[in-house]
Structures are given as C-alpha cells and as structure tokens.
Amino acid sequence: MEFTLAYDQHKELVWRLVSRYVGSQYDREDLFQEVFLKISKALPKFRGEAKIETWIYRVAANTAINFVKNQQRYSLFRKTLEWMGREKEEEEEDGKVLFEPLKKLNPRQRMVLVLAEVEERKLEEIGEMLGLPIGTVKSNLHRAKEILRKELKDYDKL
Amino acid sequence: MISYENYIDKLKGVEAKTNFDQAFAQVFHKRVYYYPKLAMAAALTVLVVFFSLFGVQSYYQANNSSDDVLVSYVFESGESSNGAMLVDYVFER
C-alpha cells in the first residue's frame, strides 16, 4: 500500500487514539507525526499478514507508549521547558485536568485502558497490537481500572 | 468527585483538532530532510571528536617527549660517580 493512501485512510483513527492518550495538543501533534514517520518507514515491509488497521494501531500504540516513557525519563528537562513556555501550557488547562488521573497509570496500563474502554477494542486484538498474552492484557486492564477508580474518588477538578 | 464511567465518557468525548495536510507535510519533511541531516550531523560529530582526541594525544606526546631523551654524561678527568662534580653544569630544556 502506498503511504499517501495509508495516511488518508487512517489519519483520523491515529489522531483519535493519540488525542485520547495524551492531553497536550503539542504532544498530540508530535506523537501523531512520529507514528506516521514510523509507518512510512515500515510500510514497504508490511506483508499483509494482519489487517492494515490492526497493524497501524500496533505501530501507533507502541510509539505512544515509548513516547510517554521517554517523557517520563526526561521529565526534569520537560518541566524546565514547560516552565519557560508556561503561558502556552495555561491555555491547555482543560486538557491537563482531564488527563491528570491517567498519568497515575504506567504507559502500558494507560494504553490498555484507552484501547479497551475508550476505543472499545477486544482484549484479543489489544494483545495482538501490543504483543502481549491475553492474561497480561487482562491484568493490566484490571490494575488500571483499580488505580483510576481510586484516583477519581479524591479528584474534584472535573 | 467523578465516577469512573463518567470519566471514560469524557475521554470518549475528547475532540481535538489538527491540520492533517500540515501534519502530512511535516512528516514528509522529517522523512526526506530531517533524518538524513541528523545522521550526517551525527557522523560529523563523531569525526570531529575523533580528530580532537587524536590532536590532544599528539600534543600531549609532543610536550612530554623529554621523558624519552637519553642523557649521557662524560666525566671530566678527576671526576667519578662517587665524588663531587668539578664543574657546575646547567641542563636546559
């Protein structure tokens, strides 16, 4: 499949996933581009063993998980940048409030929760996308729900 | 406090917008220009570091070469290795 066609057919699907996974508009756009950059490189090797949509979800989900892991790794550097551009961050206050509880989950738990509960994907499909056994998907989802419920109990900003 | 179900509904309702044409152009730009340039910059950095280290090492060796100089001393008549020198010698680098 040609990259332009893949982009046109799946841009909204990828954008919807990244919009539900990260809260800042800047991160969403950065992550969205990162996903399609990876797709453009990997597309010639795609053999059609899985559905193209599942394959694109897989690339998007794994890129998003690594994106957040890297953000956590360089959080001090990031906080400094945020402080330098604090006016821009203030504009995104609504997004920050909504996504704050999700930050209590680790990047994989967050992705499993978003795929299962928000995107309403089947657990088997999530396992295939993330390269995880179904048992691991279930335990990640269970733990994510548990943490989120606990977090929301004391959360009064929404 | 907000219930878990309401929170999930709020996440489902997130409607962020982006300019897909602009995003496509940026992906294309990164693919064609940015990454090859990044690779070239990395290669140049490695070369610069390599030659800098080579230069520093050469400079260090050149300035410490006196360690390798063989000094010979010829005794004057009447001198010996046990006695005092008959003439004061000044060795200069």
Describe this structure in words.
The complex is a heterodimer of chains A (158) and B (93). Chain A has nine helices and no strands. Chain A is mainly alpha-helical and 158 residues long. Chain A has one domain (3-153): Rna Polymerase Sigma Factor, Chain: A (Orthogonal Bundle), CATH 1.10.1740.10. In chain A, helix 8 crosses helix 9 (134-153). Chain B has 93 residues and is an all-alpha fold. Chain B has a domain at 19-57. Chain B has helices at residues 4-12, 20-63. The radius of gyration of chain B is 37 Å and the shape is elongated. Classes of the chains: A mainly alpha (158), B mainly alpha (93). The A-B interface holds A 7, 11, 15, 19-20, 25, 28-29, 32-33, 36-37, 40-41, 95, 98, 101-102, 114, 117-118, 145, 148-149, 152-156, 158 and B 1-4, 7-8, 10-12, 14-16, 18, 20, 23-24, 26-27, 30-31.
Give a quick summary of the entry.
The complex is a heterodimer of chains A (158) and B (93). By secondary structure, chain A is mainly alpha-helical.
Q: Which secondary-structure class do the elements of chain A indicate?
A: mainly alpha
How would the global form of chain B be characterised? elongated
End-to-end Cα distance of chain A, whole Å, is: 43 Å
* CATH architecture term of chain A: Orthogonal Bundle
SSE topology string of chain B: HH
Per CATH, the class of chain A reads Mainly Alpha
Structural class of chain B: mainly alpha
Please estimate the helix content of chain B. 55-70%
Helix content of chain A: over 70%
Total E-strand runs of chain A: 0
